[in-house]
Description:
Layout: H1 2-26, E1 44-49, E2 52-58, H2 64-75, E3 82-88, E4 92-95, E5 126-129, E6 142-145, E7 166-172, H3 174-181, E8 185-188, E9 191-195, E10 200-207
Antiparallel strand pairs: 1-2, 1-10, 2-7, 3-4, 3-10, 4-6, 5-6, 5-7, 8-9
Amino acid sequence: MRFKSARILNLSKCFAVTVILLIGACSSDDPKLTNKTEEITMPIATISTSLGDIELELDVQSAPITTKNFIDLANAGYYENTIFHRVIEGFMIQGGGLDKDMNNKPSGSSSITNEANNGLKNDRGTVAMARTNDPHSATSQFFINHKDNEFLNFTSETPQGWGYAVFGNVIKGMDIVDLIAEVNTTTINQYQDVPLDPITIKSVSIDE
């Protein structure tokens, strides 16, 4: 009985020491043992238009290439005095590439990789890059979805399936988007759905 009691006592001491060691390990300041979640700040872009301001939250995590391109152009003042040149109610409003005389405004930037396969959807209030039939041809023009446009979403890495890269969403000023979408439009030269009265983008500012 004494042997057994002594053995139990020794095991208890071992258990106590083990608990102390574990507590010490858990309270260690070693960064390898500390699980921290790094917060990512999403930049805010304010599009100041002749009809009011639209605020966008830019998703730098899901669309890093696209957001950097947009931020660089905005900070360079490129978007100043461009217009929303294509407006279709119940679809989208598109701008950022032409001036009020319907002349193309060269961005000076190279086309960017299409990030439409990032899981973001072209739902109402999201902002995405406009492009030609080439999936990787976007430079400066963007559009804001006026409704859920599922057919614009990524389905496959093919010319028909790439879709349009969403890189943010409207967090304030959706009423301005609605107002722009409802204006009367016309056709000017090869451009259709052009607002009768130009809707100017006065500036795009970035708050990071």
